[in-house]
Structure formats: structure tokens, C-alpha cells
Amino acid sequence: MLTIKRTPSFDAWFASLGTHPTRSRVLLRLRKTQMGVLDTTVPVGQGVYEMREPTCPGWRLYYVQRGSVLVFMLGGDEHSLQHKDVVAAQAVAAALDDSDQET
Length: 103
Description:
Elements: E1 3-6, H1 8-16, H2 21-34, E2 41-45, E3 48-52, E4 60-66, E5 69-75, H3 82-95
Parallel strand pairs: 1-5
Antiparallel strand pairs: 2-3, 3-4, 4-5
Protein name: Transcriptional regulator
Organism: Vitreoscilla filiformis
């Protein structure tokens, strides 16, 4: 089983979804991820991975893995903004400290 940590930037994005149907899909996706289901993920550089949400075309979740801990940094936006989101996720990943590592 994987441990999920969420950064403040992820929580802010998630809160911005309000009651949008994507919110429940993301919650389901995080539960599946916690159980070890890491499908539809691709590396985007600097240790950051992009997890695509197939039921929400264009939406991405960005994370890094530290042992059995997955740190979700950003929730993505439309595909057209992907480059900006990847750069932002890489910056957040670079700023993570040792408390985000598996103990």
C-alpha cells in the first residue's frame, strides 16, 4: 500500500474544483493509487510523474515518489496548459524537503 501526501498547492487546486464532477473522480483516483494502481503515468522530468485521468480528458495530476510515499504536488488543468503545469510541478518537487521522504 502506498502513502499519499498532498502539498498545499494540490489542496488549493482540489478545493477549487468545488462540486465539479472531476472532484469525485480525483478522489477515486487517489484511492486507487493508494492501493498501488499507477496506470496511465508517464515521467515528465526531474523525478516528476504525470498521472492522466482517463475519465476527465485533459486533466493531469503531478507527483513524485519517495519510497512508498507519493507526494501529489499539483492537480493539472486542460491539456493546453500542460507545459506550464509540468514546470510548476518540477519547481515544487525541487523544493520538497526530507520530511516528504519515506521514514
